[in-house]
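note to self — DONT lose this again. spent like an hour looking for the file last time. sequence + predicted structure for the chain T wanted, 333 res
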Amino acid sequence: MESENVRQLLEWLADDGAARSHSGAEALVEKLATLVFQGAWAWPNHADRIDEYRDQLQEWFAHDSAAGSRFIELTGPHADPGAFVDWFLPLVLEWENQAAHNEPDGAEDDPPSTGWPNPEHDGTPGTEFYRVDESSQKYLYSATADGVDWATYEERRYTEPARSDDYGLDYRYDRTGEVYEWYDESSGTWNDQAWADLFAASTEGLQASADRTEDEWDEAWAMFFRTGPDGAYEFADAVVPGQQTSGCSDVWLSHEQVLARYAENQEATPDEELEEEYSEESHEELLRSAHAQARVAVETTLAEDPDGWAELSPADIEEVISSLARDIIHTQE
């Protein structure tokens, strides 16, 4: 180890050094002061004692040449100060643990762990102070330096994930951003509310499509039909109306819409079968009257009990009207 490596260490951890604001730097300064530099709390600001500090560090690296080589590498030219702190702090904590085990029986217990101000505090509640957990080597956070409820950053920032049956997704609350986040299992990422809304909408669309039956052709109506998500029939014209081979159009109608459209296209005159049977001029008025009465009766019944007529096509309904008109005529003759 050269003096230049120690000089780099001091420059990085000085009060205005490049690494001083890095998470863990304050802890490293205090641990080294207590363990290695004999209580010299301001050691990073004493460049005049570099050789002394070098000798003290070498004593700790004496039985770990690999760590010593790593120290030289990470304090060399163009090295990353943040990467150095992340590597060196866990090693110093290990030294501290070894020193505690080597103390003779009856030595005073270490004071309870306290935290240091978090220089990277982003407003997340309960992360104002931090310390390093010696067993897991993880950063833990608390609202106070002497807090008793230390937790990881993730635990401080987010609530425990829960399941939303409405969305079919897991969600959590971001206490810092004050927003909900939603988990995408396919990508393993957390996403915002807009993404969750789109996901739910697409899922409903896929479910609705899955609930529909395949398109079929109805010869009587000369239309395609299918069963919708609610179990009701839906109808669509062929691309070329009446020609099944032209394929199904994109516009689907309900049963009621088809009946209404069919009724609009019908003429208010007796059907052809009645005209053949009663073609004499003296019966024309009787035909019109009977047909009108029959239509009123059928439409009234249809309005009162639409479900009972749901399976009848418009052509079937017109046949019922014609049959009823014949009965009216026969009773009047």
